[in-house]
Amino acid sequence: MQTNIEESIKIYGKKIDDLLKEIIPPDRDDFLSEPIWHHLKTGGKRIRPAICLITCKELGGNPDEALHFALAIEILHNMFLLHDDIEDEDTMRRDQPTVWVKYGIANAINSGDYLLARAYHSILISPIPSDRKLKLLEIFNLTYEKTVEGQALDINARGVADYTVEKYLKLVRLKTGYYLACGMVGGAIVASENFEGTIDKIWALGKLMGPAFQIKDDLIDLTVGKGRGGVIGSDIQEGKASFLYAYTSEQAENNDKKSLIEIMTKQREETTDDDVKHVLDIYNKYGAIDHAQQYADDLIKQSYVIIDKIPTNNKTVFKDIANFMAQRMT
Amino acid sequence: MQTNIEESIKIYGKKIDDLLKEIIPPDRDDFLSEPIWHHLKTGGKRIRPAICLITCKELGGNPDEALHFALAIEILHNMFLLHDDIEDEDTMRRDQPTVWVKYGIANAINSGDYLLARAYHSILISPIPSDRKLKLLEIFNLTYEKTVEGQALDINARGVADYTVEKYLKLVRLKTGYYLACGMVGGAIVASENFEGTIDKIWALGKLMGPAFQIKDDLIDLTVGKGRGGVIGSDIQEGKASFLYAYTSEQAENNDKKSLIEIMTKQREETTDDDVKHVLDIYNKYGAIDHAQQYADDLIKQSYVIIDKIPTNNKTVFKDIANFMAQRMT
């Protein structure tokens, strides 16, 4: 089934891209089109909207009716990237200068704001009945709001001394969980009038998959790197409050904890390669990497329990999506 | 009648403030409440939401049903202030450091994003039927989007050499026009099922009142100042593309135009008091100030013509609001 999901992503990706060009026309002379398409052109695999459409279809709905909502999720994703790049002071994304670097902070903030307006617009013109449209607007707005709440915790979690796994989980459930679940919830709403029993379960799924996805992402940074020229440990350089950092902070003895916090609170440009290596050694000493792997796998297993409670005959699609997301989504 | 509007603003202001505290609770430990209330506590006269409620009542509706929408307008207004202060690099607002200065750019952007989520939320929980709720969401989103489009022009209009009155009007119709009209349009939608004939006229009114309001605001900067410690000509220091600048750019002879552009493109901190005085002299030489006053008054007169076409027995309220806004709103 995994292959089918990849196949579907390709097919739906084309539909999403076509509608994207309609909702946000390129080459307009308005100081918005240019910075936004500078960003959009850098790529993106349209996984989030595709998962919305797959869910809708597998639950018996017409994915064309969910297309505008699916696109809104994709636009929201890109809006967050624009604002996050400013907030994190990231200068490069997919080998291109970020929007704020190329067009200035003012244009980057404002372009993000514009994307959000077009995301709501896309839902507002969806070809579906009013009651379901309102429901879609509700879950979309909830997702937007919760993701912003998670981002607030993230911004203020860099190099915090008393960081815990509990704080980490709260952050990623907000910042990643709603976001991952929202497309599936929307797909379910478009597919059926009797969605109430389904959507609660999908939100619960998000609360498990969000952390699972994020922990895998944290691990990728320590193994193959996050695609920033093969650099390993950029989260450590940035002082990002990863699962590894949270877990080790709780487990480590005083001396190790002190070293850890000292390095994680350093400015990015002051963190040396030896510092990164030292943090990795501390992580290994307390078995943080194995523990993280185990923890993420447990979350996926727990998500299967939730999926089994979803009132649908097609549970396989949710399991496939859960696996796909945890393994492949970056 | 003018006194009645001021009286209504006071009464409705209290209701708005109470609901604001419900929708955005102060003193939450979430890194959002604190920066947002740092900003909200600096004041604001709640004129925009009050005008929504006045319109609703005068058109025969129940203003309590419009309260959530009115609040959304107020929240949107504050969201723009948060983001604009970063974009314009303004360090002080109402004698307090701006949010980005006190809490950093990351928290300021994210707090603005959160405000927007809560504005949509406020509309989504309005106690009104679904079809009207959707209509309110549509006009709110349109207003948000057009204001952002106007801001894009504004960000990129500083010290532009070939600035014209036409460009100025396009900018302020987008950035100020929708915004001023939106509360009235929403009030009309809540008041009546047969709002179609009314709302087109109110949008048209916004396209006249937006520039009228903005031109008055441009003039205030040259007479009593904008409340920044009595400083006259801060728009000139900032190189802001005001009506005066647009008009004089078109009228001035080559030498004057050259001086004008030279001063307006200087960095704020490099603009001397003599520079400001020189620009004021050029404005006066071409009668820009009198022309601006006349132009704004003509826009108000044109707005009366539109108001006379609004299918309601109570046209006085719109004329009072138009006058009030053009004269008092800052």
From TrEMBL, chains A, B:
<keyword id="KW-0460">Magnesium</keyword>
<dbReference type="GO" id="GO:0004659">
    <property type="term" value="F:prenyltransferase activity"/>
</dbReference>
<dbReference type="InterPro" id="IPR000092">
    <property type="entry name" value="Polyprenyl_synt"/>
</dbReference>
<dbReference type="Pfam" id="PF00348">
    <property type="entry name" value="polyprenyl_synt"/>
</dbReference>
<protein>
    <submittedName>
        <fullName>Short chain isoprenyl diphosphate synthase</fullName>
    </submittedName>
</protein>
<keyword id="KW-0479">Metal-binding</keyword>
<dbReference type="GO" id="GO:0046872">
    <property type="term" value="F:metal ion binding"/>
</dbReference>
<dbReference type="InterPro" id="IPR008949">
    <property type="entry name" value="Isoprenoid_synthase_dom_sf"/>
</dbReference>
<dbReference type="GO" id="GO:0008299">
    <property type="term" value="P:isoprenoid biosynthetic process"/>
</dbReference>
<keyword id="KW-0808">Transferase</keyword>
<comment type="similarity">
    <text>Belongs to the FPP/GGPP synthase family.</text>
</comment>
<dbReference type="InterPro" id="IPR033749">
    <property type="entry name" value="Polyprenyl_synt_CS"/>
</dbReference>
